[in-house]
Design brief:
Blueprint lengths: L2 E10 L4 H15 L5 E17 L2 E13 L1 H12 L4 E8 L4
Antiparallel strand pairs: 1-3, 1-4, 2-3
């Protein structure tokens, strides 16, 4: 069963711009496994963090709306958790969609 989710993630801003772009594309690929798909992808840009995370004081924020299966989300969560370029991520299930 497909469910809509909103996913926010923060990538280290100390990386080169090409590496940040590649990391964000790799993260999108984790969702784009049939039948799951990314509906909307927004780059929010570089922002100062409220407190240092892994010695980083700022990060690149991204938000995406996805339609995915539970298994895809579980695998996404696992892979993003071990990705050292991702400082934080948050997955929100959108109710009433």
């Amino acid at each position: 069963m497909m469910t809509k989710y909103e996913i926010m993630f923060i990538i280290k801003s100390t990386m080169e711009e090409d590496a940040i772009k590649k990391t964000s594309e790799d993260i999108q690929k984790l969702i784009n496994i049939k039948p799951s798909k990314v509906i909307e992808f927004k780059e929010m840009g570089r922002k100062k963090l409220a407190y240092p995370i892994k010695k980083e004081t700022s990060g690149y924020y991204f938000v995406m709306t996805v339609e995915a299966t539970h298994d895809t989300i579980a695998e996404f969560d696992r892979k993003v958790s071990i990705n050292e370029n991702v400082l934080r991520h948050l997955i929100i299930k959108l109710e009433g969609e």
